[in-house]
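Q: I'm building a small set of examples for a reading group on sequence design. Run inverse folding on the following structure and report the sequence directly after it, with nothing in between.
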């Protein structure tokens, strides 16, 4: 009897526990099968070849050490269901919408999908979406995400935001420092970049204080609210 060369498993996008199980068995994610599940649900496709090495499949974005990053003032950890209201509130603020891509407040259903798929996207090596939490009170203070979008260059991109009640305390800078250190040391990225609108001086100061340096001005990079384009300033930190 001939042993099959390829074994394939399809799993729901919102079932990270099952995805962790197949990663432990050496399966690697290959992509999305659109409408392939019950009720035309999209499914993640995982496969293992007969000559793949034994043991768990490698992960591009590992779990946070101990489940979170902290400096004693803030904690940065993966999204939890109780963070959804704060996250939705933050992303709906006019000043946050103005600097988002696209510059639109997300529908609530979209935010709910983001939370449902967040761990699966982390396991797939696409994006590590995290909450910024006040270490003393445990309150949701903001969000930060590392997008791994340049695998051949070992480069990731940061996006972040803090609720008004927690601004002016250095929380954004602290979160950027914690996540950047994890990205360079644990994920072993060569570069972490972040872009800000040219007139977003507060975000630029956050990046400068976190050790980032200006690399370029990107002409017409970002869509502007109401139409048109605005320039972006690109910042970078490198693993030396």
């Amino acid at each position: 009897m001939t042993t099959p060369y390829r074994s394939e498993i399809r799993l729901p996008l919102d079932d990270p526990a099952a995805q962790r199980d197949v990663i432990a068995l050496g399966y690697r994610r290959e992509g999305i099968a659109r409408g392939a599940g019950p009720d035309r649900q999209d499914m993640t496709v995982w496969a293992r070849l007969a000559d793949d090495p034994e043991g768990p499949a490698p992960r591009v974005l590992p779990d946070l050490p101990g489940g979170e990053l902290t400096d004693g003032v803030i904690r940065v950890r993966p999204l939890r269901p109780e963070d959804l209201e704060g996250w939705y509130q933050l992303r709906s603020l006019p000043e946050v919408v103005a600097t988002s891509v696209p510059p639109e407040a997300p529908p609530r259903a979209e935010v709910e999908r983001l939370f449902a798929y967040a761990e699966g996207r982390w396991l797939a090596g696409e994006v590590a979406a995290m909450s910024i939490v006040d270490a003393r009170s445990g309150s949701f203070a903001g969000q930060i995400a590392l997008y791994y979008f340049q695998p051949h260059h070992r480069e990731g991109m940061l996006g972040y935001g803090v609720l008004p009640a927690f601004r002016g305390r250095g929380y954004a800078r602290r979160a950027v420092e914690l996540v950047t250190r994890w990205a360079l040391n644990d994920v072993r990225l060569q570069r972490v970049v972040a872009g800000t609108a040219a007139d977003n001086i507060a975000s630029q100061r956050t990046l400068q204080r976190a050790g980032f340096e200006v690399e370029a001005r990107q002409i017409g990079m970002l869509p502007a609210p109401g139409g048109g384009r605005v320039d972006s300033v690109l910042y970078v930190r490198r693993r030396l």
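DSSP finds six helices and eleven strands in the chain.
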